[in-house]
């Protein structure tokens, strides 16, 4: 499930992952909730991801709360060009902990890193927050595609591992995998 403030780029991230395209043009806010499926091959196993795209607007909050408890993983987004979307992450995490399953996989994404000149949230700030909450972190761009597939593949690997771990298979380490695979935005860090 994709969560975060309205306008952080949840729908665009999902469309980028699903169709490999960027939704250019005017911003059409999600109404309530929507979903798309994508089948991935994860280490030789077919994994069907059902990805729920939630509305970030406050007025839909009661609708989206109802979906948290069935979510296996949450991608929590903020927009690196919008400080308040970053400041609201703590409130989102409180909400997540209130409504979702205890073992839900959470990943923090700092999105829109293609907008280098408008950036107001440093990568280190995202890293620090993620560390504080013990969740993996990466910076993404639905526009350029940076780290978009990686975010979903990492989640798919974790979920596949949790649901069908073989007896002698070593534990999949999501944090380590993300650290190893993540790509930088290729720009200044501030
Ligand atoms: N520069 C840039 N703009 C983006 C990116 N992703 C989304 N946008 C723009 O940000 C605006 C909001 O994108 P959406 O994907 O609709 O945002 P959302 O989080 O789904 O918003 P809600 O549905 O209201 O919760 C649109 O105008 C997009 O074109 C990105 O990676 N880079």
From TrEMBL:
GO terms for biological process: protein transport. Its EC number is 3.6.5.2. Its cofactor is Mg(2+). GO terms for molecular function: G protein activity; GTP binding; metal ion binding. InterPro entries: P-loop_NTPase, Small_GTP-bd, Small_GTPase. It catalyses: GTP + H2O = GDP + phosphate + H(+). Pfam families: Ras (PF00071). Keywords: GTP-binding, Hydrolase, Lipoprotein, Magnesium, Metal-binding, Nucleotide-binding, Prenylation, Protein transport, Transport. The keyword ATP-binding does not apply. It is an enzyme of class 3 (hydrolase). Belongs to the small GTPase superfamily. Rab family. This is small monomeric GTPase. The gene is LOC108703212.
């Amino acid at each position: 499930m994709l969560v975060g403030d309205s306008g952080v780029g949840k729908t665009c991230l999902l469309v980028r992952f699903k169709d490999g395209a960027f939704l250019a043009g005017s911003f059409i806010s999600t109404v309530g909730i929507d979903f798309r499926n994508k089948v991935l091959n994860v280490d030789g196993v077919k994994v069907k991801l059902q990805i729920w795209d939630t509305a970030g607007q406050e007025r839909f909050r009661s609708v989206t709360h109802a979906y948290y408890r069935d979510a296996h993983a949450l991608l929590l987004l903020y927009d690196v060009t919008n400080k308040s979307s970053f400041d609201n992450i703590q409130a989102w995490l409180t909400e997540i902990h209130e409504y979702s399953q205890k073992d839900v996989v959470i990943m923090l994404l700092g999105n829109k890193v293609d907008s280098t000149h408008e950036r107001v949230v440093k990568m280190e700030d995202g890293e620090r927050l993620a560390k504080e909450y013990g969740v993996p972190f990466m910076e993404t761009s639905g526009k350029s595609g940076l780290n978009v597939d990686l975010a979903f593949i990492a989640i798919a690997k974790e979920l596949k591992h949790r649901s069908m771990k073989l007896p002698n298979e070593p534990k999949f380490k999501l944090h380590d995998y993300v650290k190893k695979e993540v790509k930088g935005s290729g720009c200044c860090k501030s």
